[in-house]
């Protein structure tokens, strides 16, 4: 669809845009509004108030480019360059996963195990856009948060997001705990690692997102296994290790946690009742699924 260059009411463009987007989205009307807000630099109220104005030519060109990308199947968040997470916005790009509601369960589980005040040391392994680390930093401003990622492009986005939000996180580049200083230990480690198997059928729907952050290996458990081994010398006594995982990986992952010496091993479900987070404590008591 070519967006008209001039002399067309914004309201008419928005209507036609929604019709075109219906081919790829079940929220086409909302996406049409968001794309127009992005190219015009307006908020929703301004867009509504100025809907009878003509679409500027420069905005039409930018809109046409965004629409082409979206109709090709590129996720809306990458087209816009931002994505919502909890109560804030994050800059995103194809270098990082798009933050999802599933990960909010991991943040909730972590916050339940963090004191409101104090200098608890927290590590986010595979931080990507910084979504988890920044959410924890916002809610627990006195905690000392470290975020690690292998990708320099991901860390550049995480740093930019931290700056935009006015938050301080220690960002380190490297492969899991190899990025850390010798002897550095934590009271809580969280991770949303790659957990898809190489032949997972869902990968076709995720073709625009970075495979490095999605695919663990042949079984889908490879990253969990690496992290469980890597954190042994990084956990303070009584520290928690929490993972986000696939809906069917909880039982096997909790077996691995128990076999690795963790106690108080638990699972936590998302709003749809699917197990989404599992974790355990380095020297606690047994627990079940919340």
TrEMBL record:
Residue stretches making up the Release factor glutamine methyltransferase N-terminal domain: 14-81
Binding site for substrate: 192-195
Residues annotated as binding S-adenosyl-L-methionine: 126-130, 149, 176, 192
Claim: GTP-binding is one of the keywords in the record: no
NCBIfam families: hemK_fam (TIGR00536), RF_mod_PrmC (TIGR03534)
Name the record gives this protein: Release factor glutamine methyltransferase
Higher taxonomy: Bacteria, Pseudomonadati, Pseudomonadota, Acidithiobacillia, Acidithiobacillales
Function: Methylates the class 1 translation termination release factors RF1/PrfA and RF2/PrfB on the glutamine residue of the universally conserved GGQ motif.
EC class: transferase
GO MF annotation terms: nucleic acid binding; peptide chain release factor N(5)-glutamine methyltransferase activity
Domain Methyltransferase small, residue spans: 111-199
PANTHER family: HEMK METHYLTRANSFERASE (PTHR18895), MTRF1L RELEASE FACTOR GLUTAMINE METHYLTRANSFERASE (PTHR18895:SF74)
Family, as annotated: Belongs to the protein N5-glutamine methyltransferase family. PrmC subfamily.
Gene name tied to this protein: prmC
Reactions it catalyzes: L-glutaminyl-[peptide chain release factor] + S-adenosyl-L-methionine = N(5)-methyl-L-glutaminyl-[peptide chain release factor] + S-adenosyl-L-homocysteine + H(+)
GO terms classed as biological process: methylation
UniProt-listed Enzyme Commission number(s): 2.1.1.297
Swiss-Prot/TrEMBL keywords: Methyltransferase, S-adenosyl-L-methionine, Transferase
């Amino acid at each position: 669809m070519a967006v008209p260059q001039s002399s067309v009411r914004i309201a008419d463009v928005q209507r036609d845009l929604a019709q075109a987007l219906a081919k790829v989205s079940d929220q086409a009307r909302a996406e049409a509004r968001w794309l127009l807000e992005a190219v015009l630099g307006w908020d929703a109220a301004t867009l509504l108030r100025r809907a009878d104005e003509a679409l500027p030519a420069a905005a039409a060109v930018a809109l046409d480019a965004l629409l082409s990308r979206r109709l090709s199947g590129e996720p809306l968040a990458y087209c816009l360059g931002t994505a919502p997470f909890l109560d804030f916005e994050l800059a995103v790009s194809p270098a990082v996963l798009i933050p999802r509601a599933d990960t909010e369960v991991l943040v909730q589980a972590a916050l339940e195990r963090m004191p409101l005040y104090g200098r608890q040391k927290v590590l986010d392994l595979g931080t990507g856009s910084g979504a988890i680390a920044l959410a924890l930093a916002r809610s627990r401003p006195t905690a000392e948060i470290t975020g690690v990622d292998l990708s320099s492009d991901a860390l550049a986005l995480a740093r930019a997001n931290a700056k935009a939000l006015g938050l301080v996180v220690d960002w380190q580049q490297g492969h899991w705990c190899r990025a850390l200083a010798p002897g550095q230990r934590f009271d809580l480690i969280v991770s949303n690692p790659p957990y898809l198997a190489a032949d997972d059928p869902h990968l076709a729907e995720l073709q625009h997102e970075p495979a490095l952050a999605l695919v663990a290996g042949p079984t889908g458990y490879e990253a969990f296994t690496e992290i469980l081994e890597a954190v042994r010398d990084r956990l303070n006594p009584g520290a928690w290790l929490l993972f986000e995982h696939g809906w069917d990986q909880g039982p096997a992952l909790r077996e691995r946690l128990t076999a690795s010496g963790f106690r108080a091993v638990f699972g936590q479900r998302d709003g749809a009742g699917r197990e989404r987070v599992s974790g355990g404590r380095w020297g606690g008591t047994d627990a079940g699924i919340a």
